[in-house]
Structures are given as structure tokens and as C-alpha cells.
Amino acid sequence: MSSGTDDLLSQALTSLNIAGTGLDGYTFIEVTGTTQATVWKGTSPDDNKPALALRLTPKPFEFLRRIGALINNVREVECPRTLHLAQLTTEGRTWTVQVCTWIGVGAPRKPEMRVLGQHLARLHRCMAASSLDFTDRTLSFERHSRPPSDQPLPAWYVARDIWRDRIHAWQSLQPHQVATQPIHGDLHWGNIVATQDGGFGFIDFDKVMFAPPVFDLAKLIVTGMFRAADRIQFQTRKTLELLEGYESIRALSDTEILALEGLAVLLNEEIARLGEVYDVPAYREHADAVASWWIARRYRSPSDPLGIRASRHPTSRPADQRSTQDVLWRDEQGL
């Protein structure tokens, strides 16, 4: 642990003591945190005291209080329970100190996709039952900058253009066609943990938002189902198992499936954008390779790119979607 991080931990514990929350007897070790939060695991020699997670995050105190009230009422799946909150101001920055229950036994090594899908559907069901208002936390995408006209178009840009019908489906989904609700909002594979009973728990709810639940599914697919070897391979079977498990608890409409495909294209573009903003070449390279997969897929399987529809409706054949499309952005013309 660095001296700077050690000092932050000391200040966080002091702020908790001032707020009336003592954690005497606990020993804290820094663990891998999120891009913004620093996380320590606290353990006690007293076997009757559970392990704790101490998080230091720039998210506002009141927002973390709202999230705690929401997630503490999730009973069907394992999630961290917020036990204490405090504020810390140091070097001109204000942090929220959050003490949660420690859940899970590490990252899932060979996740059973159907079980994971069921657990996610149960999480969504519990979150939908809440009366708490999160309508101020709607989903929006930050546009990637337009490529310079004197350079070849990157694959992510071409993929977005040729799959505009799916992206429009996602955009039209948000206001009225499918119920929106509180969802996780950042459900990549690093935010899933294995539990002792062989199930799954979910952590890091700092990006809770009010959006269609299919967004969480799309992010899981984008961040885990495209494998890079000599070429990008999409794991169709695992994706179908994930969706089968999910739909055994909560059915998905055809409109949601269409939107999921558009979200996969948009989320891949977001990975490319983050790769440029934070100068992570691996992000850019992976996003470009996945976008190339989408470009090829448009011509090989225009009506069922992820292989989902044939499995859900084996007796029906989806209509070809390669019709004339409107431009995605008003200031943008087709290729």
C-alpha cells in the first residue's frame, strides 16, 4: 500500500469515527477498486464480525445514500449492504466514505451463464419494485468525435453507420415502448462476483440509472462475449444461455432484442472513445476489431447478427432489415 493511499485510509477511518462509526479491531488491505473509487477489505480476528468493504468515492454523499436505500432492499440476490456513510474533504476534494458488507469469494472462473442470467433478472425485478425515484439518472451516450475527413474511416464509425436501424431501435425504446426502471448501469464482468452457494453477486452500484433493463444485458455481452484470438469470435452459445436464464425469470420483447443489438454497437464505440480519451491502445484496438466483426456480420446475417432470434423463434424468419435508413445524427450524411 502506498503512503498516499495509507494516509487516505487513515483519514477515512477518522471521518467514520467522527460520524460515530468505530471500526476498532478491523485490519484493512487495499484491493482492486474501480476507476474512481479506492476500496479496502476489512477483516477482524473476531469470527463473529463479518468482513467489510470500505470504499472512498467521489460520488456525492446523498446519492450514495439513495443507492444504499435501493440496494439494501434487494433480497433475491447477493449485493453489498451499505452500513455506514461519512464525508471526507482533503486537498480540496470531497469524498464519500462508504462501509458495506463484503460479498462474494472472488471473480467467477467458469460462470454458469443460465444461472447468471437468472440472478440478473432477479436483481432487475427487485430494483423495479422500489418506490425510490431515480428518474434524474437517465441514460445518454457521449458521441465519439467525428473522424477527420482526410483519414480513413475507423471500423467503429462504419459499423455505426451500417447498423443505424438497430441504433434507432434503441433510441426509440427509451421514451415509451418498454418500461424503464432503476438498473445497475455498469454491469461489466468486473462487477460480478461468485458466491459461496455457487451463484452470483453484484457490486459497485455507483452508476445506477433509470433505463430499460436490456442495457445491463448488452453491457455484459459487449464486455465478455467477444473473444480476440487470431480474429474476433463471438460466443453465441454462451450469449444464448445467458438470455435463456434471464428469460426464465423475466421475458424480453422482440423490441428489446432489437435494441440490444443496437446497444452492442454503441457500447463498442464507447470503448473506442474511452481508449482515445484515456490513451489505452488496447481498448481502441479491441473496439476496432469488434467493429470489423459487426461490418462483416451486416452482410452475412443482416436480420440476426448475434444469432439470438433464430433460437428464440426457430419457426419464424426475421425480415431483412437492409432497408433505406435515415441518418443517425442530423449533421451526418450516409456513407
Order of helices and strands: HEEEHEEHHHEEEEHEEHHHH
The profile of the biggest β sheet is:
5 strands, antiparallel
Mean pLDDT: 88
CATH architecture of the largest domain, please? Alpha-Beta Complex
Contiguous helical run count: 10
What strand line-up does the widest sheet have? Answer: 1-2-3-5-4
The helical percent reads 40-55%
Number of domains: 2
Helix and strand content put the structural class at alpha+beta
Number of beta-strand segments: 11
Structure description:
The chain has 335 residues and is α+β, with helices and mostly antiparallel strands. The chain has two domains: 3-101, Phosphorylase Kinase, domain 1; 113-312, Aminoglycoside phosphotransferase (APH), C-terminal lobe (Aminoglycoside 3'-phosphotransferase, Chain: A, domain 2). It has helices spanning 3-18, 61-71, 113-128, 155-162, 164-177, 214-224, 236-247, 254-277, 281-300, 309-312; strands spanning 27-31, 38-43, 52-57, 82-90, 93-101, 181-183, 192-194, 200-202, 209-211, 226-228, 232-234. The strands form four sheets. The protein has a five-stranded antiparallel beta sheet, with helices on both faces. A hairpin with a 5-residue loop joins β7 and β8. α4 packs antiparallel against α8 (254-277), α5 packs across α8 (254-277) and α8 (254-277) runs antiparallel to α9. The chain is globular. Residues 318-335 have low confidence and may be disordered.
Which terms would index this structure?
335 residues, alpha+beta, Phosphorylase Kinase, domain 1, Aminoglycoside 3'-phosphotransferase, Chain: A, domain 2, 5-stranded antiparallel beta sheet, two-stranded antiparallel sheet, 10 helices, 11 strands, 16% strand
